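Researcher: Here's a chain I'd like modeled. Treat it as a single chain, no partners, no ligands.
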Amino acid sequence: MTQETVEYIRYRIPEDRSAEFLAAYTRAATQLAAAPQCVDYELARCEEDFGHYILRITWTSTEDHLEGFRNSDLFPGFLAEIRPYVENIEEMRHYKPTSVRGGGSSLPSLYDWAGGEEAFTRLTSVFYDKVLKDDLLAPLFADMGPDHPEHVALWLAEVFGGPAAYSLTQGGHGHMVAKHFGRHITEPQRRRWVNLVQDAADEAGLPTDAEFRSAFVAYIEWGTRLAVYFSGPDAKPPAEQPVPRWGWGSMPPYQG
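Model: Modeled as a single isolated chain. Structure tokens:
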């Protein structure tokens, strides 16, 4: 599992070439869309200076871009379309996300929509009470400390757009991942975890509207599948990464 990287390519295109430039990238985008190394892409034009463009491409990793896509059968077709504009490139670099990110106030975060810190504290309290009474899951948590539900509440709060308290007090993504090493979580246990946390969400009074629950369950599915992977015999510690931030209908900025 590797961390995604974002490539930014900044162009300065003369006004009389803008139409052909956009047309060329429309054709080149066909190659990007077909590339398994490409997560998504977007070409944006500056409002204050129409000659400036920024192409953003999210790759599964820098290595996948440089050694995968560029050595694939798709790259020649892509390069043929954009070659006339290579001389107009002002910057072409890869960037990794940091922990400094979040949403604006135009749309409430999932954290705010859920009810803030108190909601996630209620959720984990109800959930782990269920876990300790469950024959399938209780053995996994036999050595659980009394502060474990609180720590998970901090994690979920940060994931869904709340304060970065987990990162500041517990060590971030790597610390959470390490909790799963050697646990050998089974698929039946994962599914029971998912079912119990949804039951706990109902009992804890988290929102039941379709938009919130679909985003909530999507993260629970994603997170528990990563937990199974990192608990297995072939798991390798991931590179240093920030805690994922889960938004409305979005994927996190990395894949483990």
